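FAQ: What does the model actually see?

It sees only this:
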Amino acid sequence: MKQAVKQTLACLAILTWGAAPARADVPWTSDLQQDAAAARAANGVVLVVFVASHCPYCETALNDFLIPMSGNANYLAVVMRRVESGGTHPLMDFQGHKLTGRQLAAAYGVRLTPTVMVFDGEGHPLTKPVIGVSTPDYYGTFLDQAIDQGVQQVRARIGGRPHIAPDKPPGSK
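And it is asked to produce this:
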């Protein structure tokens, strides 16, 4: 009986997994340490897009690429956040230090917006930044390459497997 209940619950979970509402947004970060913990839990990465107010290229990057990507199940291992590169609102960096968006951007050498950076769960940059939207036809490819490279590096460190808690020990039937 217990096995039948487990199988039924597993089937329901699989059926409803795809029906979960999309998270289509790239929220402002206030705590990168917390964002990094979420990425570690998913064996994924933190993608930070540094933006500026009144930046049409930032709007293109967000509206045409990053926000649609955030609602796509292929990017569940990516915690996407945005930071105002000239902002003065306080936020927490990856190490738990309080600073501003301007200070965070300066710490990572961000001079142009949009700049997209991919970090591991400890706050280390994993790829070269994707700077600007100079070629919209290829921008999605550039983002995918950075994300894929970052996720591959993180997963290589943990043995290449996504984080899935098994309900049975490995090798059991």
